[in-house]
Amino acid sequence: MKEKVVYWITGSQTLYGADVLEHVAQHSEEMANYVSERMPVTVKYLTTCKSSDEIEAAVKKVNADEDCIGIITWCHTFSPAKMWIRGLSKLQKPMCHFATQYNEKLPYDTIDMDFMNENQAAHGDREFGYIVTRLRMDNKVIVGYYKDEEALKELAAWCRVAAGYAFSKKVKVCRFSDNMRDVAVTEGDKVEAHIDFGWQVDYYPIGDLVEYINKVTDKEVDDMMAEYAKKYKMGTDRIDVVREQAKYEIAIDKFCKDKGGYIGIVDHFGALHGLNQLPGLAIQDLQSKGYGFGAEGDWKIAALGAVMQYMADQKGTGLMEDYTYDLKDGLCLGAHMLEVSPQFAATKPEIQVHPLGIGGKSDPARLVFEGISAPEAIAVSMIDMGDRFRLIVQKIELIKYPKKMPNLPVGGLMWKYKPNFKEGVAAWIYAGGAHHTVVSSQVTAQQMVDLGNMWGIEVVLIDENTEINQFKKDLMWSDVVWKRK
Fold it and tell me: What EC class does the entry list (predicted)?
């Protein structure tokens, strides 16, 4: 991600003279360099804009630079905002207005009007903020001293979102099946998703994949088995079954690369003609390498998972499914029939082989493990409301299994809902949240809200402040607003 660039653009004007503008440029470059060293991306000072033409030229450079994922704007001095209209109207990338200052404290003993004129970010921020609001731009505002840890943390989080937004535009999902028959929530408008998010969703018959599987060599399987041995414990003597999954993984990875760089995968247990097993271990290991996965044809979760994994540096993020409650303790056990990512494993996962009662195929190999605990995590769902997409983000707390579950042959997670069990479950259901989610212990709720805002879609947040009656009203008002957009 460090190869991605965020340009730092400073606002000023010619009114203050050459000396002041020289200081503005020096300060801006110093600040950008300091910030860059503490970001997951590279922050580069681009220019100090003093006129409409300079602003438009800067925006054109930003738009044309393939490595640029967004801009940070800041007004060192006052910068009349009419001259920003033409340029900002053409901006095609995310913008963060950093309300900061070169000096942290005022020099009370020496401050004079020269200092005031050169250092008037409070003045410039308001003028700039007005025109951004007037243009109805949905930018991010971060407030704080540029060396302050909290401000830098917020800025780093935003940079990851901007990188995810850019990554999203190139996400391609390979579907080896349609949606599960009669299931509603996994459906969606693929054309609208391509427009809104950049997601290209394509179907290939499972037979095309079978041809790739049949061409996998024993040497390739041996190499994959050696890779498994380094990462996982072997808990079965049915090695032939594990080798079959290795063939699936090699073939799926090759297929996705050969067909144009697919990073999302979709299959369905009811569409496995030509396969001996449902891909389990294969899909789990592919997720550990950054692939997004959607079960039962759920392409939205495959694409969303790929984006969130990129934002999370492939840590603690992947497919999840709300499965069953512990109503006494107010918990939810999440899992899936096979495909939970080993990124969620608290200890070294074990390869096991067990029967699978769904799909009518041979016993599949899969990774079995207990999930991580994390005081701050999120579950995210994407649903199609008919006239728009809705992104639902819920804060959860991942906890250790209260007791061992020796007969459960899958990886899983246990969590508590925010704000509490009753309101957390009710809010999710009122919002229309799906049973498939992407869970992450790395990506934050605020980051997903910011990403939804960049996409220009409805975002519903369920957190510790949610009150169910107000939440229902908010959904009602949101429906009215989004129908008018």
Answer: isomerase
Kindly give the pairing relationship between strand 95-99 and strand 68-75.
parallel
For residue 299, which of 174, 181, 434 has the smallest C-alpha distance? Answer: 174
* Residue 420, φ and ψ in degrees, nearest 5: -165, 175
Domains of the chain: 5-168 (3.40.50.10940), 172-484 (no CATH)
Q: Which of 478, 264, 481 is nearest to 391 (CA)?
A: 478
The answer to whether the beta carbons of residues 128 and 81 sit under 8 Å apart is yes
Q: 43 and 81 in contact (C-beta within 8 Å)?
A: no
Q: Which H or E run includes 322? A: strand 317-326
Terminal-residue alpha carbon distance, the chain: 34
What is the spatial distance between Cα 459 and Cα 451, in angstroms, rounded to a whole number? 9
Q: What are the tens digits of pLDDT across the range 414-434? A: 999 999 999 999 999 999 999
Q: Could you tell me the two tokens for 224? A: 């994959």
Q: What is d(CA 141, CA 97) in angstroms, rounded to the nearest whole number?
A: 5
Q: Is 298 exposed, middle or buried (0-12, 13-18, 19+ CB in 10 A)?
A: buried
Per-residue pLDDT tens for 71-82?
999 999 999 999
Does residue 328 have a pLDDT over 90?
A: yes
Between helices 299-311 and 445-455, what is the axis angle to 10°?
120
> What are the residue ranges of helices labelled H in 182-334?
190-197, 206-214, 218-231, 239-258, 281-288, 299-311
